[in-house]
Amino acid sequence: MARNQALFDAILGGKRKDAARITQECVDANINVQELLNESMIPAMREMGDRFSRNEVFVPEMLIAARAMKAGLEIIEPLLVQSGMEPRARVAIGTVKGDLHDIGKNLVAMMLRGAGYDVLDLGVDIEADKFAEAADQGVKIIMLSALLTTTMQYMKEVVDHLEGRNDIKIIIGGAPVTADYAKEIGAHAYGRDANDAVKIVDALVGVA
Amino acid sequence: MRIKLISCEVFTREVCWAIARSPNEVSVEFLPKGLHDLGAPRMFARIREIFEAVDETKYDAVAMGYGLCNNGLVGLAARTIPVVIPRAHDCIALFLGSKERYLDAFNANPATYYLTSGWIERSAPDAQLSQFSIKEQLGMNMTWEELVEKYGEDNAEYLWDQLVDHAKHYNRLGYIEMGVEPDSRFEEFAKARAQEKKWRFEKMRGDLSLIRRLVDGDWNEEDFLVIQPGYKLATRHDASIVEALPAE
Q1: Domain enclosing residue B198, as ranges
Q2: C-alpha radius of gyration, chain B, whole number
Q3: Is the residue at B139 inside a domain?
Q4: Is B234 inside any structural domain?
């Protein structure tokens, strides 16, 4: 099956109702939902992410595209489960203790879902213990977000707390965070923006 | 001592109060509030432009009325005279009088939105600045009407909820009274804002000592970083917040 252009366009244009309607029509026509996901929905979000990286679209466009994708995904999710399809990997994300600013974190979570990941969104103001608990729930990647220089220092405590968990990779991001800081505290990677974060997760779990 | 003070205008009343009482001869230049909204590279460019225009032959030191301010001062290099900056993440430490008190207040309730006279009366966004703000760049500065026009009502509702109300997890408004206010007008404004946002209102006592010591030249190692010529400002990811590193 080739790309369903109407669905691709509906997602890219943030048209939630169109995306749901077209998806439902495909389901009713017994179209393979795995192919629909992999060849129309995920590529639409990937295209959106690339446009964002090229400064052609901005945060609102990305958010409504992810929302449109979600509308379609909800329809095919039960069928994907039935078909035995496994999500790419389980990823946990949260803003660190003391940080209540979640716009960036929410955006990264949505883009990851749009890329086919199972995202455990822990929320805001998350202590190291909670991230460790997520590590015990089949999560392969833990993503930490902070907006303030006051709170980003807590990222080090989370990294230290997870020391020895060689099965877990830690990615950090947020306005004051840098690649140098990731190196300094021993995090595995730094995500510059939401699209970059998805690409880093892809690389860490071995998705081409 | 002759000091050139480059300060965020959010400290206008406090800094003027402190300069009036200082033994030093202090020349102050206020820059618009909200530079931190530009993101670190643009904020730094603005600060550096003003900083490098200072005729250093006229002064013994340059003092910065700033904190780390989202890394907007990182890289600032002393030229021929020392540069001094309070060890603070942002202005709230300067209003509360110490980084330790700010840390305690922050840890006690991170969901606090702070207001002072400067935050209230200097709140109108500078049109020239705001076009370069991160929020503007990210499309987070739109009105409800603009959202509806551009994305339709269904998406506008969603975007409003996701993007525009950036303080939705806050639950307390901390009004810091510095003791330099003319009357209760700022407190009343803050109370009304708290009510409108459904946040708990709390009046906090400000402490002018850090701002006063900044202009008085009372710069101990614990609370201030003095950058000597040949060194530049860098972040330190611990309680000391900032450090001086060789400029080259």
Answers
A1: 2-127+170-246
A2: 19
A3: no
A4: yes
CB contact under 8 A, A16 and B155: yes
What is the tally of structural domains in chain B? 1
Distance from CA of A131 to the nearest CA of B (A): 19
**CATH code reported for the domain at A90-205:** 3.40.50.280
Please state the domain extents for chain A: 5-82, 90-205
User: Whole-prediction pTM value?
Assistant: 0.89
Give the separation between CA A179 and CA A192, rounded to whole angstroms. 8
Contacts of B188 (CB under 8 A, 6+ apart): none
Fold of A5-82: 1.10.1240
Q: What is the pLDDT of residues A195-204, one digit of tens each?
A: 999 999 999 9
Q: What is the pLDDT of residues A6-58, one digit of tens each?
A: 999 999 999 999 999 999 999 999 999 999 999 999 999 999 999 998 989 98
How remote is the C-alpha of B194 from its chain's centroid? Answer: 21
CA distance B174 to chain A (A): 16
Q: For residue range B111-131, list pLDDT tens digits in order.
A: 999 999 999 999 776 666 667
Give the separation between CA B61 and CA B59, rounded to whole angstroms. 6
C-alpha distance from B29 to closest chain A C-alpha (Å): 26
Answer yes or no: is pLDDT of A137 > 80.
yes
**Which residues of B fall within a CB distance of 8 Å from A60?**
139-140, 142, 147, 150-151, 155, 159, 163
Q: Indicate the helix (H) or strand (E) that contains B3.
A: strand B2-8
CB atoms within 10 A of CB A117: 23
Quick check: B165 pLDDT over 90?
A: no
Most A-contacting residue of B235, B236, B240 (CB-CB within 10 A), to test interface: B235
Write out pLDDT tens, residues B3-33: 999 999 999 999 999 999 999 999 999 999 9
What residues of A are in the B interface, CB distance below 8 Å? 14, 16-17, 58-61, 63-64, 67, 98-103, 106, 124-125, 148-153, 156, 175-176, 181, 184-185
Helix pair angle (A194-205, A42-53), 10° resolution: 130
Which among B90, B139, B169 is the nearest to A58, CB-wise? B139
pLDDT at B222 over 80: yes
Q: Do A153 and B237 touch (CB under 8 A)?
A: yes
